[in-house]
Amino acid sequence: MKKIFLMIMAVVFIASITKAQESSIDLREKLMIGVKAGLNVSNVYDSEGEKFDADSKIGFATGAFVQIPIGKFLGFHPEILLSQKGYQGTGTFLTMPYEYTRTSTFIDLPLLIAFKPITPLTIVAGPQYSYLIKQKDEFKSDVYSDEVEEDFENDDLRNNLLCFVIGGDFNFNHLVFGARAGWDIQNNTKDEASTTPQYKNVWYQVIIGFRF
């Protein structure tokens, strides 16, 4: 039954794409600019720290983009985004357990190569430069100590991060519905001996945009 259901869903998906292709204006060779907004579901990977565990967190993403054609089937899609990432974590500091929520606000600059096989579908991938502009930690602990928060605040954070992004857009004339997945290739801190958790960000993003 599961296989039959998946086959039906695949047929419906292909039919929807075909229908969208028939009703969409072909703008693949047009220079387009636009604005977008959506949500990030972020977490961390490759983490290091004493008894450190993390759960995902939701944040916003908003910004602008340019779709530069390189022929009909290829293009260059730079973007600039204000993007929230982070996680909800638990850990210990000098044997003291704590819970906290970290919110990191970045300016993201994805530099994406686009493949446009059909009118409504664009597949994108490429590097991303991220600059950390703000970080906020909210602590909760039964034996709360200012020393824990002070150690987090004094952490030698890496403000400049390199990432890799892959995703796709569904284009319905001037409306764009997009999804992205991205992950850092650098740790969040410069100091490998730091007592606070060290990790790399990973996130999934859904957006809606308007291009003109």
What does this structure look like?
With 212 residues, this protein is mainly beta. The protein has one domain (2-211): Porin. The protein is built from two helices and nine strands. It has an eight-stranded antiparallel β-barrel. β4 and β5 form a beta hairpin.
What is the class in the CATH system?
A: Mainly Beta
CATH topology: Porin
Q: What is the distance, rounded to the nearest whole angstrom, between the alpha carbons of the first and last residues?
A: 44 Å
Please identify the structural class as seen in this structure.
mainly beta
H-E string: HEEEEEEHEEE
How much is the average pLDDT? 83
| Unreliable residue runs | 1-6
As a percent range, the share of helical residues equals 10-25%
Which key terms come to mind for this protein?
212 residues, 2 helices, elongated, disordered N terminus
Write the layout of secondary structure elements.
Blueprint: H1 2-23, E1 32-48, E2 53-55, E3 57-69, E4 74-93, E5 96-118, E6 121-140, H2 146-153, E7 160-172, E8 175-184, E9 198-211
Antiparallel strand pairs: 1-3, 1-9, 2-4, 3-4, 4-5, 5-6, 6-7, 7-8, 8-9
Short summary:
14% of the residues lie in helices and 63% in strands.
